[in-house]
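Quick one: examine this chain and its backbone structure tokens and tell me how the chain folds. Here goes:
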Amino acid sequence: GLDQRGVSEMVYNSISKTDISLRGFFFKKILISGGTTMFAGFPTRLKNDIERLHNQALKGNLSKDFHVTVADPPTRKFNVFIGASWMGTSTNGIDSAWVTKQQYEE
């Protein structure tokens, strides 16, 4: 296997790389989807880990304005499929948004 960072670190690092004016918005709008997010306690652990990472980054000076919200809809197991099937059937007017394999490889 590959040695990779955990999901919490990847989410935190991704949001931390965005413009500072957007970070608060993104931390409040974390949406999880896919079958592996169905593990018991996953949403709570993700939230707690991100808060811990932020606290470590600020060396304990956690802002009162910092909030993490992890949305875990009950349909999250199927959200990826639902989104893909919607995209597959709703191609009217968005044909230019698709990228062919050849375009991607360029």
About this structure: Helices lie at 7-16, 20-27, 42-57, 79-89, 101-105. The chain has a mean pLDDT of 86. Residues 42-57 form the longest helix (16 residues).
